[in-house]
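Report of the visiting student (M.T.), summer placement. My assignment was to run the structure pipeline on a short list of targets and document each run. The first record concerns Electron transfer flavoprotein subunit beta.
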Amino acid sequence: MKALVSVKRVVDYNVRIQVKSDGSGVVTDGVKHSMNPFDEIAMEEAVRLREKGKITEIVAVSIGSEKSEETLRTALAFGADRAILIKEAGEVQPLTAAKALAAVFKKEGAQLFIAGKQAIDDDANQTGQMVASLLDIAQATFASRVDVDGGKAVVTREVDAGLETLEVDLPAVITADLRLNEPRYLKLPDIMKAKKKPLDTTTLGDLGVTAAAGIKTTKTSPPPSRSKGIVVKTVDELVAALKAKGLL
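After the run finished, the structure tokens were exported:
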């Protein structure tokens, strides 16, 4: 069974985001980038399923500029067998990404598509669901546990009321939540081996996909500064302060 895992290059989660002075977006030049944390979890889960003998091949795929090759090499170090870079220097919105990933899924003849539930740069949480819709296959999102047996996958997912368990027929799309696993620490030998693993490139045009911007960002601005707090000595002062702010 072949699994396709999508990974995205994003600004590292430890970086303090700065908004450009003209409000056109966030500063990315000279800023550390890394693999989207949710995609790390998705890749780790695919490797664990292969270690259990549930899948036989893992193909990592990413959409972006040549800089995304570094992210794919990280995926190969995690344990992916090979990687595919869909080269696109411009903005790639969720629907375009979903169309491209669905095309690769069909071309590869994969049975399982695993992705992070969302990317931390836009928090859209749309691509996985769109891939499932475009392919007309089952989906199980926000997975906190995954078991694959033959042609079925049993997925435990987190919902507002607690936990929900779904059984889906393969092929299927599964998106990873934080509690699915803890990604392994990459060792130097694995990083070195990843440099020799195959990494192929293609384009949106080769996949029959046209980049389309369905959403236009008009302005980006930082959150308002937090106002300074006050110290009260008595309950009466607290009540009076809350009333003054219209909170009581």
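Residues 36 and 120 are 7 Å apart (CA to CA). The radius of gyration is 21 Å. I thank the supervising group for their guidance throughout the placement.
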